[in-house]
């Protein structure tokens, strides 16, 4: 465990956590962060979680070799890959046989290196397609052979689409993570825009938000902007953003997942996965 401990950022265990009680895992891989969540067999509540910072290419393999949740007797889980290589396809037009073709419109797909993964959300009315590096998938598959893979946008957009009741006619939701954000724009409760941006400075954040407002023809002083997550991750603050947007606020995510007693502090990370379990498509 020493190797993995060198990279661990936070660990959260319930008071009576036992690795034998793990039903399945949810894993969220960002560019520089890995979250591993263990679900309880009885009710899918969160029993434990480990969060790792990633600095080098070798970090991930070492972590997978030593993490006690990944190497428990459980062999199933879902991996969410957060990166820029994804696209959305209307469910009515989607044909799995053409997945690579759809994704090629958004990003180059190399059949030798990439596997195309897809996940239906909102009763399969939207398919989220993403590229998954085959070598990366092999690393996870060696430990979790029954693992399923989705692009992280499926988890985020699933959350956003469950919040679109009784919205104003112009609303934007922002989900933050380290050095990146997802943005969803709704007009009269209908999804008009969804995208992901890399953010390394506040000026980039402002530039992208103003571009989104312009693209949607939203009124800067009227549009409601709700931000979920830590604003430090995108190099800003609510105080600074209020200088540019009159109707902007930081909110706590709606929660649809329970906790085993003692693991609740995972919510303090402000990561969406600490609050939201993606609903299976019907």
List descriptors.
about 280 residues; alpha/beta; Nucleotidyltransferase, domain 5; 6-stranded mixed β-sheet; disordered N terminus
Distance between the termini: 40 Å
Strand order of the largest sheet: 1-4-3-2-5-9
Could you say which overall geometry the principal axes of the C-alpha atoms support? globular
CATH level-four homologous superfamily name of the largest domain: Protein of unknown function DUF3822, N-terminal domain
Helix proportion: 10-25%
Number of domains: 2
CATH level 1 class label of the largest domain = Alpha Beta
Relative strand content: 25-35%
Q: Catalogue the unreliable spans.
A: 1-5
CATH topology of the largest domain: Nucleotidyltransferase, domain 5
Compute the number of strand runs.
Answer: 14
What is the averaged pLDDT score? 93
Q: How would you describe what is shown here?
A:
- This is DUF3822 domain-containing protein.
- Pfam families: DUF3822 (PF12864).
- InterPro entries: DUF3822.
- By secondary structure, this protein is of the alpha/beta class.
- It has 2 domains: about 1-160 and about 255-280, Protein of unknown function DUF3822, N-terminal domain (Nucleotidyltransferase, domain 5); about 165-250, Protein of unknown function DUF3822, C-terminal domain (Nucleotidyltransferase, domain 5, 2-Layer Sandwich), CATH 3.30.420.260.
- The chain has helices spanning about 1-5, 55-65, 100-105, 135-140, 150-160, 200-215, 240, and strands at about 10-15, 20-30, 35-40, 45-55, 75-80, 85-90, 115-120, 125-135, 145-150, 170-175, 180-185, 190-200, 225-230, 250.
- A hairpin with a 2-residue loop joins strand 10 and strand 11.
């Amino acid at each position: 465990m020493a190797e993995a401990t060198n990279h661990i950022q936070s660990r959260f265990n319930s008071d009576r956590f036992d690795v034998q009680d793990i039903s399945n895992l949810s894993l969220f891989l960002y560019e520089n962060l890995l979250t591993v969540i263990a679900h309880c067999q009885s009710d899918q509540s969160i029993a434990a979680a480990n969060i790792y910072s990633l600095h080098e290419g070798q970090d991930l393999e070492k972590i997978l070799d030593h993490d006690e949740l990944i190497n428990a007797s459980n062999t199933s889980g879902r991996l969410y890959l957060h990166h820029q290589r994804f696209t959305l396809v209307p469910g009515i037009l989607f044909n799995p046989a053409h997945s690579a073709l759809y994704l090629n419109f958004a990003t180059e797909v190399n059949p030798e290196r990439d596997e195309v993964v897809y996940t239906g959300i909102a009763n399969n009315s939207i398919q989220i397609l993403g590229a998954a590096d085959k070598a990366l998938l092999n690393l996870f598959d060696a430990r979790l052979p029954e693992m399923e893979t989705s692009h992280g946008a499926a988890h985020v957009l699933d959350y956003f689409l469950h919040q679109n009741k009784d919205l104003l006619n112009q609303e934007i939701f922002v989900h933050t993570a380290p050095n990146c954000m997802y943005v969803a724009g709704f007009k009269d409760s209908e999804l008009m825009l969804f995208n992901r941006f890399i953010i390394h400075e506040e000026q980039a954040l402002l530039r992208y938000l103003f571009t989104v407002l312009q693209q949607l023809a939203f009124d800067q002083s009227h549009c409601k902007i709700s931000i979920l997550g830590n604003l430090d991750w995108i190099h800003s603050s609510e105080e600074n953003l209020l200088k540019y947007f009159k109707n902007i606020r930081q909110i706590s995510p709606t929660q649809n997942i329970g906790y085993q007693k003692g693991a609740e502090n995972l919510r303090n990370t402000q990561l969406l996965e600490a609050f939201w379990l993606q609903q299976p498509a019907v």
